[in-house]
């Protein structure tokens, strides 16, 4: 949501209070000890920690698949023992339950984890908090963009600790918008990132559409991520910001950025007759690593892709981030009902909309069906609801009206 929009429903007030509890009387997050060692969850120097790495946990799982038993890990409770909100059980009061709502700030917490359905105001609340913090030692990232930089910097420097130091510097407050873990490969790096951030004793605020217990939902690998989930639960206050209203569907449209684009209802028969759908002069554009992708048109800072050409190709969020540096106006044509395409194509559309939304760049989509029908019947895409909510911010236009206006002009 737009941080300039003042909406204070009860869930947003609760979340705002949780964030305010992170600051001292001067409006600043707790300072990191100067020159201090990184510590593990038990306060020991990180280099002496005994907790197995995420890669080691995955290795134990693979060993069990081949007949070698997976030894019990009694350091953390199984997820099945956690209550419905995903917090570990503990004596009175339950861990994470004693909170600022009752007037006493939670102890040993270094941040807040805000979760809820799309459009409820998570980003707005976090951004207002970020602006209010009286410190220059703060950084705010969209998680897609940060994670792409983390991949590249880790590869360059050879260590995730060095990469975190290079990307975050002396920042004491780190804010991640749209935190998510859907892929096992990403999960390995994210687990190490979380370990490093907590070992550094930085204050962390994240927004997510998913409660911690729902991260990495793939049942084949979810158990391997449970220790990292427990790290989150132990270090962050988990707050549900999930009011009944999707605010993106209400109120006036923004007059700048992403929302100035259009969602053009372009049925297949119209799209097939449109000569721009398969422009014979279409060319290919080069991505950061030398791969190329087919474009329909490039004009100044405007670029047009076909859905199949962009989302049907092996492209990534890092590719879209790279392209946003040169192209500020985007059009995506011939988007079919998503239930009819492979799930990886749909996931790329989710990533594309996330990138353009966070960069606040205009997007025009030509789709075969209205948004609610376009996304209906799609299984196993956990973030598609967020995409649908964001597409609702675009002006809904019929393709024939666009063509009539152009012909009349």
- Strand percentage lies at 5-15%
Count all strands and give the number.
13
Q: What series of H and E elements makes up the topology?
A: HHEHEHHEHEHEEHEEEEHHEHEHHEH
- The CATH topology of the largest domain is Rossmann fold
Query: What strand line-up does the widest sheet have?
Result: 9-10-11-12-6-13
CATH H-level name of the largest domain... which superfamily?
Answer: P-loop containing nucleotide triphosphate hydrolases
| Rounded Rg | 23 Å
SSE map:
Elements: H1 10-20, H2 54-65, E1 111-115, H3 122-132, E2 138-142, H4 143-157, H5 160-168, E3 173-177, H6 184-199, E4 203-208, H7 222-235, E5 237-240, E6 262-265, H8 268-273, E7 284-286, E8 292-294, E9 297-299, E10 302-306, H9 307-311, H10 317-324, E11 329-335, H11 343-359, E12 363-367, H12 371-374, H13 384-391, E13 395-398, H14 399-408
Parallel strand pairs: 1-4, 1-5, 2-3, 3-4, 6-12, 6-13, 10-11, 11-12
Antiparallel strand pairs: 7-8, 9-10
Helix pairs in contact: 1-3, 4-5, 6-7, 10-11, 11-13
Q: What does it look like?
A:
By secondary structure, the chain is an alpha/beta fold. It has two domains: 10-240, Rossmann fold, CATH 3.40.50; 252-408, Rossmann fold, CATH 3.40.50. It contains 14 helices and 13 strands. Strand 9 (297-299) and strand 10 (302-306) form a beta hairpin. Helix 6 runs parallel beside helix 7 and helix 11 (343-359) packs across helix 13 (384-391). The two termini are 35 Å apart.
Please provide a brief summary of the model.
This protein is of the alpha/beta class and 409 residues long.
């Amino acid at each position: 949501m737009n941080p300039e929009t003042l909406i204070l429903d009860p869930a947003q007030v609760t979340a705002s209070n949780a964030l305010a509890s992170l600051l001292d009387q001067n409006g600043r997050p707790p300072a990191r000890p100067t020159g201090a060692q990184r510590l593990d969850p038990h306060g020991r120097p990180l280099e002496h920690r005994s907790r197995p790495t995420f890669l080691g946990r995955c290795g134990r799982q693979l060993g069990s698949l081949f007949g070698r038993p997976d030894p019990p890990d009694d350091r953390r409770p199984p997820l099945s023992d956690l209550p419905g909100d995903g917090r570990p059980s503990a004596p009175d009061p339950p861990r994470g339950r004693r909170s600022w709502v009752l007037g006493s700030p939670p102890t040993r917490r270094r941040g807040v984890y805000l979760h809820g359905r799309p459009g409820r105001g998570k980003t707005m609340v976090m951004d207002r908090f970020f602006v209010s913090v009286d410190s220059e030692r703060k950084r705010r990232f969209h998680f897609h963009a940060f994670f792409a930089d983390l991949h590249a910097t880790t590869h360059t420097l050879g260590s995730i600790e060095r990469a975190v130091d290079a990307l975050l510097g002396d920042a004491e407050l780190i804010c991640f918008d749209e935190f998510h873990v859907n892929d096992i490969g990403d999960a390995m790096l994210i687990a190490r990132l979380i370990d490093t951030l907590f070992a550094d004793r930085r204050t962390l605020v994240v927004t997510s559409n998913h409660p911690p217990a729902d991260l990495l939902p793939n049942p084949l690998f979810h158990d391997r991520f449970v220790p990292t989930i427990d790290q989150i639960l132990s270090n962050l206050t988990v707050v549900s910001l999930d009011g009944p209203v999707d605010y993106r569907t209400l109120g006036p449209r923004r007059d700048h950025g992403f929302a100035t684009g259009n969602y053009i209802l372009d049925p297949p028969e119209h799209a097939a007759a449109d000569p721009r759908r398969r422009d014979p002069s279409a060319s290919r554009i080069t991505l950061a690593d030398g791969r190329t992708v087919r474009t329909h048109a490039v004009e100044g800072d405007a670029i047009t892709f076909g859905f199949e050409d962009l989302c049907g190709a092996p492209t990534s969020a890092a590719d879209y981030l790279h392209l946003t540096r040169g192209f500020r106006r985007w059009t995506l044509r011939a988007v079919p009902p998503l239930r009819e395409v492979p799930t990886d194509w749909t996931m790329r559309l989710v990533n594309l909309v996330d990138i353009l939304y966070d960069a606040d760049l205009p997007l025009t989509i030509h789709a075969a069906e209205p948004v609610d029908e376009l996304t209906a019947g799609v299984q196993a895409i956990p973030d598609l609801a967020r995409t649908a909510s964001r597409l609702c911010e675009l002006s809904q236009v019929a393709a024939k009206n666009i063509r009539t206006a152009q012909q009349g002009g």
